[in-house]
């Protein structure tokens, strides 16, 4: 029986905390306002962002722990439900979506999104994924109906990495800033971190993984704190690098000035109060946290990593850019920004360039363009 209304299915492994999951929640809110029916198809319906999924979204759980082991279940869903569009993000998830669509007989128009620079990402890894995923991307990405990138830097990297015509890749910035973010920025800090209400602090946010390079942020902070003994460092996030980072803080003699409370559902209240937000990553795609910090009126310093910060900060007009893995440059930029007057209104205005509405408009335009070309059933 033919469906009367177009349906968008979004496939992810879970809703555990991260930039991709956060932007999917915001995208769902925006598309729902325009009458788009949405299925959120999850390998496992778990994670901190489950409670933020809008009630109008139908959640479909495939009953698997990983995207790669959800292949047959996803193919079955596509054959039975035949959504008009299937959207996925992150390279290993995209590969599962492509294969499932093929197994199901290609019943849907597949939209895959690349969120990181693949060249930079795989260059730092030697595990089985780094060996297997790139050749599969080069073969299978061509089978997707539409390929998206979250930034022009990611698009350029992806085109070169898989040998694809750059014209095949569309760029849509992530939907990041909405009224919910602004409202949460005004909320009080949790009781355990109330001391930061009256204490100057530098903020870092992200998973505690090697990519985020929080070790360099700690080293830079140690240098800056020598002349600012009241300054603290707050890092929000959780991950496998925690033991190494805690040991490094002890070695640097800053453990008593560093707070690492783990994942926090509302980082925006901290962004609103921080003296400075610092991003120290080796690589990114379009770092959501950098945009969120701007939207909260927070001064920023970021590595000029591939890719995203250069675009977000408009070549350095809205924040300091420093070379990757240059602790000296990072500490100097942090000190310079701390000494400079903050223009919160200007920073907040830049954040609005990455608003939910701006991004949703682009996604709606894409869906209409696909329909107009007759690419959907």
List the topology elements.
Elements: E1 7-12, H1 19-32, E2 37-42, E3 58-61, H2 71-81, E4 85-89, H3 91-103, E5 109-114, H4 118-123, H5 128-140, E6 146-149, H6 152-162, E7 169-171, H7 179-185, E8 201-205, H8 214-225, E9 232-236, H9 242-252, E10 258-262, H10 268-273, E11 276-279, H11 288-295, E12 300-303, H12 309-312, E13 320-322, H13 327-339, H14 344-351, H15 356-372
Parallel strand pairs: 1-2, 1-4, 2-3, 4-5, 5-6, 6-7, 8-9, 8-11, 9-10, 11-12, 12-13
Helix pairs in contact: 1-15, 2-3, 3-5, 8-9, 8-13, 11-14
Describe this structure in words.
- By secondary structure, the protein is an alpha/beta fold.
- The chain folds into 2 domains: 7-175 and 355-372, 3-Layer(aba) Sandwich (Rossmann fold); 179-354, Rossmann fold.
- The chain contains 15 helices and 13 strands.
- The strands form 2 sheets. A 7-stranded parallel beta sheet has the order 3-2-1-4-5-6-7, with helices on both faces. Strands 10-9-8-11-12-13 form a 6-stranded parallel beta sheet, sandwiched between helices.
- The protein is globular and about 65 Å long.
- 46% of the residues are buried.
Key features?
Rossmann fold; seven-stranded parallel β-sheet; 2 domains; single chain; globular
Structural class: alpha/beta
CATH topology of the largest domain: Rossmann fold
Number of strands: 13
Percent strand equals 15-25%
- Distinct helical segment count: 15
Oligomer: single chain
Gist of the model:
The protein is of the alpha/beta class and 377 residues long. It has 15 helices and 13 strands. The protein folds into 2 domains: 7-175 and 355-372, 3-Layer(aba) Sandwich (Rossmann fold), CATH 3.40.50.2000; 179-354, Rossmann fold (3-Layer(aba) Sandwich).
